[in-house]
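#struct-pred

JT: dropping the chains for the assembly here, can someone run the whole complex?
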Amino acid sequence: MYMGKQVDMETSRHENKASLYTCVRVYLSTLPLWFLPLAFLALAFFFPLSKILALTFLPSTLTPENLRNTQSVVLFTFYQAVLSTLLTLFLGIPSAILFSRFDFRGKSLLRALTAVPFLLPTVVVAASFNSLLGPRGLLNTILQSSNSLFLPPSSFILPPFIAILLAHLFYNTTIVIRIVGAALSNLNPKLDQTARSLGADSLRVWLNVTLPLLRPSILAASLLVFLFDFTSFGVILLLGNSLLSTLETEIYFQAVRQFNLPLAALLSIIQLLCTLIVSILYSKYAIRSTQYQPRSTPPLAPRTFKQKLFIVTLCSLLTVYFALPLASLPFRSLTRLEADRGQRGEVQYGFTTDYYEELFINRRGSVFYVPPFQAILNSLTYASATVILSILLGFPAAFALAHPTRLEKILDPLIMLPLGSSAVMLGLGFIVTYGKWLASPWLVPFAHTLIALPFVIRTLQPAIASIPPRLRQAASTLGASPLDIWKNIDLPILRRATLAAATFAFTISLGEFGATLLVSRPEYPTIPVAIERFLSQPGGLNYGQAMAMATILMALTTASILLIEKFRLPNASEF
Amino acid sequence: MLEIKNIFKTYGDNPLLKNISFKVGGGETVCLLGASGSGKSTLLRMIAGLESPDSGFISFGGLDLASTPPHLRDFGLVFQDYALFPHLNVNDNVAFGLKMRRMGRVEISERVANSLELVNLKGFGERSVNDLSGGEQQRVALARALAIRPRLLMFDEPLGALDRALREGLLNELRTILQKTSVPAIYVTHDQEEAFAIADRVLILHEGRIIREGTPADVWANPNSAYVAKFLGLGNVIDGVVRGMGKDGKWKVESEFGGFVVGCKHKHSKGEEVHLLARPFVEERNRWSSSPARAERTLSDSEVEVEASRDVSRPEGSNINTIQGKVADVVFQQDKYKVTLDNGLYVYMKDAPKIGKKIAVRVKVECLG
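RK: done, full complex below.
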């Protein structure tokens, strides 16, 4: 036994030495690889963070009035996040059971449908809900204009708070389905059967065996959902009608509308502390939730009437809930249901492409100085710049992380830190630190790169690590010089991962809302910023254009996601 | 000709290779045989240039290779896990080394076709290497190494990942190919059957040293050490003590399994501990003697008594050099039965004895020193 272990250690040590031999001459040491990524992080993240910290602990910031304002915001943030999380569990756990325990037709399609919102930009989700349930949404406009014999003209206005909860539910249910569902299908079916043979009925099996075993995964899912609800920005801003404010939106209001940067800084530090604590708790439970022996329980076709009823009810509910908002957005963008801008008298109801055509026109008195179509061009330019920047910075870091030494083990969490802080806070950091350059449109791609970089690195790193050292050795014995190896082995194999990473960066940049809203100039709006501005203006035309823009963004994002799925390594991690 | 001289290699505090020297001549296939961890793969990687020795020389054709990087050595290396390039098809994998040598396209396609034909993969060129079976992948790896017409071919446990039937077939093909191309080759394995089937010469590595070197037949006939006999599975290795020399110049040895008489070149002294090899084949001393019953006998209980108290000083006695005991297990293997006795000794027999029966079998016993 002892000998065997020693031999294993020896062989693995050879492997390392040998792979180093072939790699070292190409990459020398990992330290130079880190120069650019670390310099970027220092300038774009750590320096701004220190500025925010400094601002927070000024005596003029920590006034009783500021603290009182903060308190109510913190309380509301927790309140809505807890409520949203509970609601998400309420829908998510039955859905997890549905998907992991039963087989039925259209299952994979329905499952994919529930995952779509999570991948869409928040503005698109907010716009979708608005298009269905908002004051100018399908439901309300149809009710108002209905001259039907059966229904009197009425109105339906969803309270903003309910809209927010529903949007969060829409967004995050897939997390519970994935995490709890995975735990459910990994449960050993023998435990269930043993409990039954010992005399427990199905309810008691569920309460005494299954649920306790699922607890870590349910906790992990709740914490992750809570984290997303806690830091949610676009949904609150766009559906909350400026009446409801969480930490995240309050940072924005204070920084941009009140220009009270110290209070914004204080809020963002509180926000950061909360998210850090929740993140740490999450990673603790995430590890525990995966520690059971994977003994998969295969999903079964429903047998009893009760099971069939459960499946039919839940499937219909999920289909309606997830498909309607997604379908109503493009539908609403193509239908005129109200007056364009305050006309009285006859309004042409029905199908229209006006909202799309209007995007190309620079009207006087519009909310832009430029034709709205320019926002799409801006977004595409920013996204391309983000791709180039994040790939340039991500590649060296991913290469170093793929063959980790002690240095990499320290740097790895550092690189991922921006992921843990909210986008609005990153934007605030830019404002506080690089305020004098705010006139330049070039701050935006840098902010986007900061957000995209961890994803780019995490996509490239496993691909680089997956190239076995043997491949390079084989190439070497066949006569390939180190440069030849890089050109003929590494680069071609990494092509797919690079494309996936680039698409990731592109998608993130396209949909990024929080940081952009703080950093971007009014004359250089991006698609999400334009949607926000259209939505906050009166008139059917503005609303229609918001819908049209959001539809375009939805289409672009969907195309990108499909591309990523095509390029991604099959075994890459999910979150 | 490859020459290895006084190679030392240490990992951490563990010496892995201690003073290794050997030569590989033109057209010769040399097999490095050893247990896992014996350093044989490391030796191979040093020859390939993927690692360097702490001290010692590796030369080819009289030229020291110390400063030649792996890609300029012209040595083909075939790995156990094939190491095929997953992004290239079969043709491009085989052509890789030729492209690295900046050869013309016509010549490359010709050589690729030749190599693929040599390994019986004609028509596989356009296939993706990921769709091939293990055996096919190993053939591609072999074709890829052959295509560059290497000065030396090296195999690192090339058949280790394949199942038994496939291994035998591929081994025969490999031998034919090596004969056809007459490339000198070094073949690393821990499987003695594989080694004996392919090698012109076998080197057995143990604890960092070459402890036995010779043709397969020679090594088989004279293992010369208890380790080699055990490692090669040549038979029962028995520890005994020398009791003295008989009048015929043979040594009398006593062991827990009884007394034995062996003739050998070694000089032993009385009381010295020696290892004996009892080959597991029934020895019929007198072919013309009428019944084989003299070699294989069923004992009655009283006879066992006699056997146990037998005088080992009678070298010509009929019970000398027998292994005996109760039959504990009988396994049919190909054309004979492997009979294991209750004391752990085993012997191959034509007919299966009943389990529990006491038997005594005369076998050939040699001294391992």
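JT: nice. Residues 1-28, 570-575 of chain A have pLDDT under 50 and may be disordered. Residues 126 and 398 of chain A are 34 Å apart (CA to CA).
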